Amino acid sequence: MVWIASLALKDIRVMADAEIEPIKGLNFICGPNGAGKTSVLESIYLAGRGRSFRHPDAGPLVRRDAHSARVVLKLWDENGDRVRVLGVERARSEMRCRFDGREVAKRSQLAEALPIQFISSQPQLLLGMGPDVRRRFLDLALFHVEHRFLAVYSRVQKSLRQRNAALKQGQAEQVSAWDQSFVEAGNDLTTMRKQVSADVFDRAQRILLGWGLDLGVAYRYRQGWRKEMTLAEALSTRLSEDMERGFTGVGPQRADIEFLSDNGLAEKRLSRGQQKMFVIALNLAISDMVADLSNGVCRPVFLIDDLAAELDGQNLAKVLAALGERDVQVFVALIDPPAPGTVEILPAKVFHVEHGTIK
Ligand SMILES: Nc1ncnc2c1ncn2[C@@H]1O[C@H](COP(=O)(O)OP(=O)(O)O)[C@@H](O)[C@H]1O
Ligand SMILES: [Mg+2]
Question: Ligand 1 within 6 A of 63 CB?
């Protein structure tokens, strides 16, 4: 697995120039509001994803009056016993990335070089947001465990785009010409997503039970078309409506994974703190699954913003212990360093952020 041995960042929001040497284990990024904690996490995220988690565009990320935001990471690769350098420079409209001395052209290559499991300050939003957010959550997990994922996903997207274009132009023959590839890739993607959902949910439930949290959670995978039909049947049943509307109304592009508690939507049944614990358990579950299925070769680095928000002291301690006992590198943003007694036994290092500098 890969972990960050050093992090140098320049002109990222309030941070002008900073360098830290994190440990493998828990790294606490502490400081008052506006100090730059989230910006530190954002810079690591930029290196692994090529963008920010706050906005789709890079403008606000680049420090006022600076030309570009830069981050350089030294990654310790345990499998190869060597250090590799990952550098990303993001100007307002362009991006340059280098990994191990080579130019990197695709974002997916960044994600392979530095797998990241990001938990926002309000991860419970996952439960109440649109299906697309939950699909992306699942697909990111799939990306790391199923090497065919990108190819299958691209095939679904391509045939869907072509099919939709034909629908808009009212060309029925062209529409059905794309059906076979859409159905094949769509079924493939659906099978993968169902497997990953079951695995992740199962692990998450065991993590919750280990924490003594009996939240009565369950999940329902919605594949994007009626259960009793094949995808091909669903497409042909729906053809005239699709022709009228000009887009494909059934298929894996409509899939969702709904999370339930006591037979209602988890978002409506559980308290916000309980929801947060549930979503954190899902994230831990994904990380465990990725580690298991890769025989420990891949274990995403956790970035966790404002972990303490909405968690009581006991739950916070449970999450920190769960992270500390795993073979994983974690960056946790917190206003105050963890209370004495919570992390003494864990591998941990505290960094203090103040007005854009790190101590
Ligand atoms: N492009 C920018 N240039 C300079 N400062 C910025 C920029 N974007 C945001 N900031 C400032 O950066 C500060 C850091 O915020 P943030 O990292 O979110 O702090 P924290 O997470 O510690 O509360 C905020 O005070 C904000 O006004
Ligand atoms: Mg913050």
Answer: yes
Token pair 């659906």 is at which residue? 190
Q: Is residue 123 included in any domain, yes or no? A: no
Show the domain range for 34. 2-115+299-358
pLDDT tens column, 143-174: 999 999 999 999 999 999 999 999 999 998 99
Placement of tokens 């993590």 in the chain: 207
Instruction: Match 């100090």 to its residue by tokens.
Output: 35
Q: Is 31 in the pocket of ligand 1 (CB under 6 A)?
A: yes
For residue 64, the ligand 1 atom closest to its alpha carbon is: 3
Domains in the chain, number? 2
Q: Can you give the pLDDT at residue 55?
A: 87
Spell out the alpha helix ranges (H) of 211-249.
Answer: 231-245
Integer angstrom CA distances of residue 57 from 10, 51, 68, 90, 224: 18, 8, 13, 10, 30
Assign 347 a pLDDT band (cuts: 50, 70, 90): confident
**pLDDT digit string (tens) for 282-318?**
999 999 999 999 998 899 999 999 999 999 999 999 9
Is residue 339 included in any domain, yes or no? Answer: yes
Residues 20 and 84 in one domain: yes
Clarify whether residues 200 and 78 are in a common domain. no
pTM above 0.90, yes or no: yes
Which of 9, 14, 65 most suits a substitution to test ligand 1, by most atoms within 8 Å of the C-beta? 14
Residue 204 lies in a domain: yes
